[in-house]
Design brief:
The chain is mainly alpha-helical. The chain has helices spanning about 60-65, 70-75, 80-85, 85-95, and strands at about 40, 55. It comes from Glacieibacterium arshaanense. This is HNH endonuclease.
Amino acid sequence: MARKHSKYDSYDDTDREEAAPAVAPTCWLCGRPTGTTIVWHHPVPKSRGGRDVVPMHPICQQTLIANFTNSELQRHGMDVQGLLDNPAVRKFVDWVAKKEPDFTATLTKKQR
């Protein structure tokens, strides 16, 4: 493991610049800024060979899981617009747009 500071560098050095506060990434599904909890979602499920991850709100990820199977998510891939064409997902995104970034709620379970 690499050292955070040099072995000969003093830790109380006041000449160092402080890092700028990080900008919260936007949610892949709804486009709102993420809050304190960020879920790194695989648009193509790992079981289907997906490697890419995108930031999402937990409630947005729960909505995708409740409305799509892994096969459907694999077919959509990184295409957000294809997911938003689903009426249930579009209704959810329009509803959650007015909520705070850390908003959470209980969602309905997947219909099987």
